[in-house]
Design brief:
By secondary structure, this protein is α/β, with parallel strands linked by helices. It contains twelve helices and nine strands. Strand 6, helix 8 and strand 7 form a beta-alpha-beta unit. The radius of gyration is 20 Å and the shape is globular. The protein starts with a helix and ends with a helix. The chain binds ligand C2E and calcium ion (3 copies). It comes from Actinoplanes nipponensis. This is Diguanylate cyclase (GGDEF) domain-containing protein.
Length: 280
C-alpha cells in the first residue's frame, strides 16, 4: 500500500513541479513585461439604470505578450499573486489608472465619470503599508480619494484581520470599498457586518440566470433587499442582454455593468465617448 501511495504521489509531484516550472517561467516573463511596458489598462463603464449613463469606470489590466499575443488577467493575475509580482504590478495599475482618471477629470470636468474602480488582490491587501502606498499614489495624482473605489473579493477580505485593518485605513482616507464577485465566496453575509464596504458587486453567475423564477432570480432579489436594508449600493455584473437589464431594474437594481452596455474600452475609446457626449 505504501508503494502504491508513493507512486501516486510521484505522479502528483511531477505534475506539481511542471506547474511550478510553468509558473516560474511565466512569473519571470511577467517581471520582464512590467519593465518593458507590455501591460496596458482598459476601462469598463458602470452605468446607472435605466438611462445607461456612465457613473464609474472599472480598470482592467491587459498583457500584450510579444510571442503569445494577448494573455488574459484570469491567467496571469493568479501567477502574479503567487510570485508576489502583483505588488509592483498593482502599484503600476493604481498609479496609471489614477493619472488617467485625473486627466479625464481635467479635460471633461463633470462630464467625466464620477468614479474610477481598481481591483486589488488579496496579496496586496496583506502587504504591510498598502494603505500608505494608496495614499501616496492619490497624492501624486491629485485625484480625489472619494472618487476611488477599491474592488476586493470576499475571499481576500475573509483572509483575516490584516485585510480588514487595511480596508479601514483606506476608508479613513476617503476611499470607497466594493465587494467584488459578491455571492461566490464563503463568507458573504457575515462579512457585511465587519467589512467597511460601500458597494456590493453582484456576480455575473446570478445575473446569467435571472430570467423567470430561477433560483438566481430569488438570490438576486434577496441581494438587492440586503443592500438596500444596509444602505449599500448594488452593482449587477456581467449584464449581456436588454432583457437582463430590464429584469434587474424591475428587481430594484440601479447600477449595472456588462457587455450589453459596453465592453472594456481603451483610453482612446473612453476619450472619444466622453468627447461625443460633451458635444451633445
Ligand atoms: P472582475 O474584477 O470580476 O472583472 C470583470 C470581468 O468580467 C472582466 O474580465 C470583464 O471584461 C468581464 N466582463 C464584463 N462584462 C462582461 C459580460 O457582460 N460578459 C462577460 N462574459 N464578461 C464580462 P477580465 O478583464 O478578463 O478580468 C478578469 C478578472 O481578472 C477580473 O474579474 C479580476 O478578478 C482580474 N483582474 C482584471 N484586472 C485586474 C487588475 O488590474 N488587478 C487585479 N488584482 N485583478 C484584475
Ligand atoms: Ca472587479
Ligand atoms: Ca467581479
Ligand atoms: Ca470575476
Amino acid at each position: 500500500a505504501k508503494e502504491r501511495g508513493k507512486g501516486r504521489h510521484a505522479v502528483y509531484d511531477a505534475r506539481l513541479e511542471q506547474d511550478q516550472a510553468a509558473d516560474a517561467q511565466l512569473g519571470a516573463e511577467l517581471r520582464q513585461a512590467l519593465d518593458n511596458g507590455d501591460f496596458t489598462l482598459v476601462y469598463q463603464p458602470i452605468v446607472s439604470l435605466p438611462d445607461g449613463k456612465w457613473t464609474s469606470l472599472e480598470t482592467l489590466v491587459r498583457w500584450q505578450h510579444p510571442e503569445r499575443g494577448f494573455v488574459g488577467p484570469d491567467v496571469f493575475i493568479p501567477i502574479a499573486e503567487r510570485t508576489g509580482l502583483i505588488v509592483p504590478l498593482g502599484d503600476w495599475i493604481l498609479r496609471t489608472a489614477l493619472r488617467q482618471a485625473a486627466e479625464w477629470q481635467d479635460v471633461f470636468g463633470s462630464g467625466a465619470p464620477a468614479e474610477i474602480g481598481v481591483n486589488v488582490s488579496a496579496r496586496q491587501l496583506r502587504e504591510p503599508g498598502f494603505a500608505a502606498d494608496v495614499r501616496a499614489a492619490l497624492a501624486d495624482s491629485g485625484f480625489d480619494p472619494e472618487k476611488l473605489v477599491v474592488e476586493v473579493t470576499e475571499t481576500a477580505v475573509f483572509d483575516g484581520g490584516v485585510a480588514l485593518d487595511t480596508l479601514q485605513n483606506l476608508v479613513t482616507l476617503g476611499v470607497k470599498v466594493a465587494l467584488d464577485d459578491f455571492g461566490t465566496g464563503h463568507s458573504s453575509l457575515g462579512l457585511l457586518r465587519t467589512c467597511p464596504a460601500d458597494t456590493l458587486k453582484v456576480d455575473k453567475s446570478f445575473v446569467d440566470g435571472i430570467g423567470g423564477r430561477s433560483e438566481e432570480a430569488v438570490i438576486a432579489t434577496a441581494m438587492i433587499q440586503i443592500t438596500n436594508g444596509l444602505h449599500l449600493q448594488a452593482i449587477a455584473e456581467g449584464v449581456e442582454t436588454a432583457e437582463q437589464a430590464e429584469t434587474l431594474y424591475r428587481l430594484g437594481y440601479r447600477f449595472a455593468q456588462g457587455y450589453h452596455f459596453s465592453r472594456p474600452l481603451t483610453p482612446a475609446q473612453v476619450g472619444e465617448r466622453l468627447e461625443a457626449a460633451r458635444v451633445l
